[in-house]
Amino acid sequence: MTPVSQKKSRYATVAQELALAIETGIYAVGDLLPSEAELCLRYDISNHTVRHAMRVLHAMKLAAPERGRGTRVIGTSSKKRYIHSLDSIPDLGELVKNTKIRVLRRARIQPADALVPLPDHIPEWQLIEAVRYVNVKEPLAWKHVYIDSRFSKAARKVGGSSEPIYKLIERLYAESLYKVKQEVGAVLISRAAAARLRVAEGTPGLAITRHYIGASERILEVTYSIYPANRFRYHSELRLEHID
């Protein structure tokens, strides 16, 4: 079993080692790469991580999937590229750790009833309306959280657990977060949100919509959060990993 480096994302390490093996001739054009099960055992990683690594090789034009057979080598070199990788969502984790959330309402809704567009192929969502606090005197954000109803066990734990929702889903349902799509925009705070945030209706605010997407491109969770402009600060650190 090959231990995966802890200094870089697991999928990036696997992709880099396989790319090097292809470029040095260990795997020639036309060869099949080791199976998903073999790679899981070799690197002690999940099948979601293996699939993520394979997507990198596909993007580099080094390998391509073949239905029912595996992944076949189609090239021996690629242009230098960078992978933008995050092992976690650090700002979200810190937000959960340093604040408290109070659930205001829970409901089952259809996609058309949400404040933000939701996929129609998921017919029912768990809505959680909540307020996140720095302290009881200063509400930080008013939010709607939409969770695929198939993850109802995770939804029920919101408000009673300090664990981020996407981590609850990962742990309880063996899902793996692959990416987060985020949209940020300025808004005038609505009456419903203003009452909870203790600001005047029409106060400038920031709206953040996030789609949490699993390794199979399945949406796990969607959040829509409103922050008063003077209460929001965002800091992040991104690491670029070089694959030759």
Give a written overview of the molecule.
With 244 residues, the protein is α+β, with helices and mostly antiparallel strands. The chain has two domains: 10-84, Winged helix-like DNA-binding domain superfamily/Winged helix DNA-binding domain (Arc Repressor Mutant, subunit A); 90-239, 3-Layer(aba) Sandwich (Chorismate lyase). The protein has seven helices and ten strands. The protein has a six-stranded antiparallel sheet. Helix 1 (10-23) packs across helix 3 and helix 2 (36-43) crosses helix 3. The longest helix has 14 residues, at 10-23. Mean pLDDT is 83; it is low at 1-7 and 79-94.
CATH topology of the largest domain: Chorismate lyase
Task: Look at the helices and sheets and give the structural class.
Answer: alpha+beta
CATH architecture of the largest domain: 3-Layer(aba) Sandwich
Low-confidence stretches: 1-7, 79-94
Would you kindly provide a brief summary of this structure?
The protein is an alpha+beta fold.
Write the topology of this structure:
Layout: H1 10-23, H2 36-43, H3 47-59, E1 63-66, E2 70-73, E3 81-85, H4 90-98, E4 100-109, E5 125-135, E6 138-148, H5 152-157, H6 165-173, E7 177-188, H7 191-197, E8 204-214, E9 219-228, E10 239-243
Antiparallel strand pairs: 1-2, 3-10, 4-5, 5-6, 6-9, 7-8, 8-9
